[in-house]
Structure formats: C-alpha cells, structure tokens
C-alpha cells in the first residue's frame, strides 16, 4: 500500500475512555493518519458513520450504552452496503476467550489488545485497507 493511500485513510475511533481515545488518536497521527473522528459509544458511532464515511473503524468492546459487539452487529445489519461492509478492528484490554468468541465471528480485521503499540496499529490498519 502506498503511503498516500495510508495517510488519506479516514478512521473512526470509538472508545468511551477519554484517555484511551486520545492515546489512539495521537498514535494514529504519529503513524501518519490525519483524518480521524471520534465517538464515545456505538450509538454515537453509528450516527457519525453517516456523515464522516470512514474507511475503517477502530472500536473498543466494553462501552455503555452500546458496546462494540452490539455496534458491529448493528453495522452488519445496516441497509447501506457501505456501512454493513465497514472494515472494523476491535481494541480491548479484554483478551478473554469469551470476548474473542463474540468479537471474531463479526467479520472484523483484527483484535488489538489495548493500549495499542504504534507498530501493531500500523500493520493491522495496512492489512485492513488493502
């Protein structure tokens, strides 16, 4: 993938923790991504998707009122194919087999344990955007 494509990627970061949200946004900027929107939960993210039209969503799993699993389930059922086929990478401090078992069948491009390392984030994003 060319750096031009990578740097022009539009990323939506969904996380209810303001410190982690800021950390992820800053990490994305350090690896060269500038077009970033944020949402604090799945419901807000669904509304943001329509106006922002991201290329990729990085979402936490454990959030209120709508968690990341429910958010991605809603995405997959959406009537707009650009929304239902959205590329998603889960981020969570929870790497339990139960959570992975719920998350991985949802057609995502990976699962990153938080806090994400810049190299890991860059590789996962490049793989998802290919």
Can you put this structure into words, describing what you see?
- By secondary structure, this protein is α/β, with parallel strands linked by helices.
- It has one domain (3-129): Rossmann fold (3-Layer(aba) Sandwich).
- 48% of the residues lie in helices and 18% in strands.
- It contains seven helices and five strands; from the N terminus they run αβαβαβααβαβα.
- The protein has helices spanning 3-7, 18-30, 42-52, 68-77, 81-84, 97-103, 118-129; strands at residues 10-14, 35-39, 56-60, 87-92, 111-113.
- A five-stranded parallel β-sheet has the order 2-1-3-4-5, with helices on both faces.
- Helix 3 (42-52) packs across helix 4 (68-77).
- The longest helix is centred in the first third of the chain and has 13 residues, at 18-30.
- It is globular and about 30 Å long.
- The N and C termini lie close together (7 Å).
- The model has no long low-confidence stretch (mean pLDDT 92).
